[in-house]
Amino acid sequence: MNLLKTSVFNCLFVCSLIFFLFFLLLFPKESFNAALNGLVLWFRMIIPALLPFAIISGIFIRFHIADYFSFLFKPIIGTIFDLSNEGSFCVLAGFLFGYPMGAKIANDLVVDRQLSKNEGEYLFLFCNQASPVFILNCVAINCFKNENLFLPIFIILLSTSITIGIVLRKFFYKSLKWDSKEKVLKSLNDNTSPFEILDSCVMNGVDTILKLGAYIILFSIIVKMVEIILKDFYYLKTLIIGFLEMTNGISYISSLNTSFQIHFLFVLFCVSFGGISCIFQTASMVKNSHFSMIKYLIVKIMTAFISILYGILYLKFIY
User: Fold this and answer.
1) Which of 116, 124, 112 is nearest to 197 (CA)?
2) In 3-state terms, what secondary structure has residue 309?
3) Is the Cβ–Cβ distance between 61 and 197 less than 8 Å?
4) CB under 8 Å to 182, separation ≥6 — which residues?
5) Residue 185 lies in a domain
6) Cα separation of 157 and 151, whole Å?
7) Whole-number Å distance between alpha carbons of 319 and 311
8) How far is C-alpha 21 from the chain's CA centre?
9) How many angstroms separate the Cα of 277 from the Cα of each of 247, 269, 281?
10) Has the keyword Cell membrane been applied to this entry (predicted)?
């Protein structure tokens, strides 16, 4: 049975690659422009927004600064989720830095032996979210043309993540503590100078951003493919693009001729789910820690629907 599933998956994967190749050959101009748009998006938004955080978070982890930095926030975050200091830092950074930094930091903390794999996977499942900067600029201002919507959208998405974190902690990750025989922290003076560590953090951050750029360009072409194939099916096209890639999905939603309420809920779904593109980006960040991407996909779907529920409550009783 497993062999059959593998064969079917391999067949579908090869067919998809062949179809993608034919699209590149049949629509070279459109493919080039889509790749160029993805490159510009990566260069103008992703690099300045994420590269500094990728480097700084790496420095915090390698020099064990996260333990001290999160001390101020541990009473709040630790009380809600019952985490270590390092875990509290991961939650804080994941909520503030944006996709896929939450997943990367959880992975790096596990690889650096500052978190158990169990606690790292738990954090990875719920603290990998859109950043406040993205919500303000791309959602509130660009999509809704109303920056006053930033706060309710941010609170809804934050409340959704907290809800998921509490549910996972109570029912699925009841024990996160290290076995005392298992925890072995790396020594900072094991023949590695601070300059070598700093250089390693910079190169790791650059490698992270390059991976994100490649996925952004790839999915920009896939989105263009969907646009061309489904050009006469606007609503279906918008739904698929929103499922594939968050930023393009939000842009399409803003042009739909539907009510504000539908726009609002659709955007919440896109941002909380993140899109298949973000899932692939996240997978590339956690391959060293071997976190379960099946669990992650299930949790992201749950997150999307809970955010819609909170959105409905907001529209009904507050908006």
Assistant:
1) 112
2) helix
3) no
4) 116
5) no
6) 10
7) 10
8) 27
9) 10, 15, 6
10) no
What is the total count of domains within the chain? 1
Among residues 107, 98, 94, 96, which one has the least CA distance to residue 246?
A: 98
Domain that holds residue 91: 27-176+190-317
Task: Tell me how far apart the terminal alpha carbons of the chain are, to the nearest angstrom.
Answer: 51
Structure tokens at 191: 């023949």
Which residues have CB under 8 Å from 150's CB, separation 6+?
A: 132, 135, 136, 139, 140
Residue 158 falls inside a structural domain: yes
- Residue 199 is which amino acid? D
Domain membership flag for residue 20: no
- Identify which of 160, 153, 185, 165 has the alpha carbon closest to the alpha carbon of residue 123: 165
Low-confidence ranges of the chain (pLDDT < 50): 179-189
| Cα–Cα dist 47/54, whole Å | 10
Question: Residue 184: is it exposed, middle or buried by C-beta count within 10 angstroms (0-12/13-18/19+)?
Answer: exposed
225-247, pLDDT tens digit by residue?
Answer: 999 988 888 888 888 988 898 88
pLDDT tens-digit readout, 11-49? 887 888 888 888 889 999 999 999 998 898 888 878 888
| Calpha distance 253→111 (Å, rounded) | 39
Tokens, residue 292: 């379960």
User: 53: closest CA among 161, 166, 229, 212?
Assistant: 212
Q: Considering only CA atoms, which of 186, 185, 166 is closest in space to residue 302?
A: 166
Question: What separation in angstroms does the CA of 313 have from each of 143, 158, 265, 306, 316?
Answer: 21, 15, 11, 11, 5
Q: How far apart are CA 276 and CA 231, in angstroms?
A: 21
Q: Are 275 and 289 in contact (CB under 8 A)?
A: no
Q: d(Cα 235, Cα 238) in Å, to the nearest integer?
A: 5
CA distance 140 to 11: 42
Read off the tokens for 5: 């599933």
Q: Is there a domain that residue 14 lies in?
A: no
Q: Take residue 224 and report the two structure tokens written for it.
A: 């263009």
